[in-house]
Write a structure and sequence with these properties.
This protein is mainly α. It has two domains: 134 residues, no CATH class; 43 residues. The chain is 74% helix and 0% strand. It is globular and about 60 Å long.
Length: 193
Amino acid sequence: MAPSEQPPLDSPPRIKPHVSLLAIYRTFFWIGLFSFGGGLSAWTHREIVLLRGWMTNEEFFSGYSLGQILPGVNSTNLAVYVGQHLRGAVGAVTALGAMLTGPFVVVILAAITYDRLSTIPGFQIAMQGVAAAAIGLLVRMAITAGQNAARGVVSVIVMAATFVAIAILKLPLLLVAAVMAPISVYASWPRAQ
């Protein structure tokens, strides 16, 4: 939903779809199993929001933002958030377990056969191709997140200031978040017309 298409403040709340635990497990199992070189958050967005419609962009990016600032791996934080959002605590455990099951088996098998894999001609080039695809997914998600978050001049200024503070000035993330988060929340807070 584009920023100009926001529903009115008095619109009825969106009804969350009922998602089975098996569907959550299957989705996160495949995300965890087939994600290489990063890109998990982008693929999760594609699967959960774009393909299945289980969450809106706003719901997803709220959890994505939370997962970025919490300790731990961002993708597992996001899996816990999505699972909890869809089915509560049991959904969170299901999503996290599913995301970790496939990679656990693959890592064990890869550790056993790594010497053989690394001798296959073109293996390293293939891994570089997978990494390039993951970066493309991240860029697409960043553009979508930026469009969704740009609700006004103040939001755009906060995004730009955050980027400059972290990427260019190399300021600590916690300091930047402590300063920018209240400004961003205030700027995005719905107000009566």
